[in-house]
Design brief:
- The protein has 435 residues and is α+β, with helices and mostly antiparallel strands.
- Helix content is 25%, strand content 18%.
- The chain has one domain (24-434).
- The strands form two sheets. Strands 1-3-2-11-5-10-9-4 form an eight-stranded antiparallel β-barrel.
- The radius of gyration is 23 Å and the shape is globular.
């Protein structure tokens, strides 16, 4: 994956509808002797100065040419949710996206949603913000939104007059060998990826977007992830997955701007997908790991399956973690890096030079009732075109990767992520303006 340079954008005071009140400021005001919250928010310069100092360091700009949460340095917590649109009214869908835009802009700045927030609105009406993040910082929250194929056309029906805007790259992913996909964990009209340093901030974001969507869209599936499984910046150490191996050593890094431009961003798109210029495609796969089987496998076998040492993450051909694997180097039993190892099959040299920006997370969802952990990797990748940058690689790995024996893909989704939001704009504006 990539990270690093944050998307350019306007300052935190840029106008957007219903931006709301800083939840940190509300907390500070509440702690100054029980003064009224509204009065506390509007209190003197000293409070405002404290607010400004506290807000700068953990805010990721929302506005810019690309959506945040793609090349942003990967946070440690994630909550992703896919929504099915329930309204048949295009104007209601547009209204929802505009309301989401305002809410996301507020939450990513550490502010509560709406004028009244969680506790200062109409006493006889539900609060505009659910309130569980009222005393938390912005925690580098990013919220990334994408559109599924079924938003454009479903069962042959042009639902919102968008069928001629369907990007050719937004395909139906093929059924790969070994897939055990569950319908309730796959697909969706719209996806929301919320990432933050604090899990409650990420959950708060999805919860409030789901609340706003009531009557227009409903959650189809959701997944909480912990512990990033790839570094997206050269400044980040390589994390480990639940098999105990370093994951994402060769991932794209945001500092490699040329590679990101080539493999992540959509550019010079023609025809029906011109609105995708500056966007990307999000591939999501819920991959359950057979933890108990793996834990009974010898270290020698584990390393041969992965193609790297477990301690340092170095390729079995020698060197250190970031040493390029030598697939020609042989030992007494054949190549030091087995041809069917995960590293060998995922390497760009075996995939026409294509790369993807991985941004996955570990997950665990309890047990399956038989004493086995329902845990694994929630794989997320951003690519310029899934037809070239994901499908061929996954097809080859599903057939030949020795690691596939220990994995089961249970959920899947592909989404077109539009470009970023400019000041006074809204998510998906280019798509609907072209329709």
């Amino acid at each position: 994956m990539a990270g690093g340079n944050l998307p350019a954008g306007g300052g935190p005071e840029a106008a957007a509808p219903r931006r709301g009140v800083s939840r940190r400021t509300l907390f500070a005001a509440a702690g100054t002797g029980g003064l009224g919250l509204a009065a506390g928010v509007l209190a003197g310069p000293a409070l405002a100065g404290t607010r400004q100092e506290r807000e700068v360091s953990d805010v990721v700009p929302f506005h810019g040419p690309h959506q945040a949460g793609i090349v942003t340095p990967a946070q440690d917590r994630m909550h992703m949710a896919a929504f099915d649109v329930t309204t048949a009214d295009k104007e209601e869908l547009v209204s929802l996206l505009k309301e989401w835009t305002a809410a996301i802009a507020a939450m990513t700045e550490g502010k509560e949603i709406g004028v009244g927030g969680a506790a200062s609105g109409d006493y006889e009406a539900p609060p505009e913000d659910t309130g569980e993040a009222a005393d938390l910082t912005a925690s580098h929250l990013t919220v990334t939104v994408g559109f599924g194929r079924t938003l454009f056309k479903q069962d042959g029906e042009d639902r919102f007059g968008l069928a001629d805007r369907l990007p050719p790259a937004l395909i139906e992913l093929p059924h790969f060998p070994g897939d055990a996909l569950e319908e309730a964990r796959s697909g969706g009209d719209i996806v929301v990826q919320a990432c933050a340093d604090d899990p409650q901030v990420a959950v708060h974001a999805v919860r409030n977007l789901a609340r706003i969507a009531f009557g227009r869209a409903r959650v189809r599936w959701s997944q909480i992830g912990f512990g990033r499984t790839s570094s997206t910046s050269a400044a980040q150490a390589t994390p480990r997955n639940l098999f105990g191996f370093k994951d994402g050593t060769a991932n794209l890094k945001s500092e490699d701007a040329d590679a990101v431009e080539k493999h992540v961003w959509v550019s010079n798109a023609g025809g029906g997908e011109a609105w995708m210029n500056g966007g990307s495609y999000l591939v999501a796969r819920r991959i359950r790991m057979h933890i108990e089987t793996w834990d009974r496998t010898s270290l020698r076998e584990q390393e041969a399956v992965v193609g790297r040492t477990k301690r340092e993450g170095a390729p079995l051909s020698g060197g250190k973690e970031f040493t390029e694997p030598d697939f020609t180097l042989k030992g007494s039993a054949g190549p030091l890096v087995p041809a069917d190892s995960h590293v060998a099959l995922a390497h760009p040299s075996r995939n026409g030079g294509v790369r993807m920006l991985r941004r996955g997370f570990n997950y665990t969802d309890g047990s399956d009732g038989l004493g086995r952990l329902d845990a694994g990797l929630f794989f997320i990748a951003f690519v310029t075109d899934p037809r070239t940058h994901y499908v061929p690689m996954q097809a080859a790995m599903a057939k030949n990767d020795a690691l596939a024996e220990y994995l089961r893909h249970t959920g899947s989704g592909l989404f077109a992520v539009p470009p970023g939001v400019e000041q006074d704009g809204w998510l998906g504006q280019g798509l609907f303006a072209a329709a």
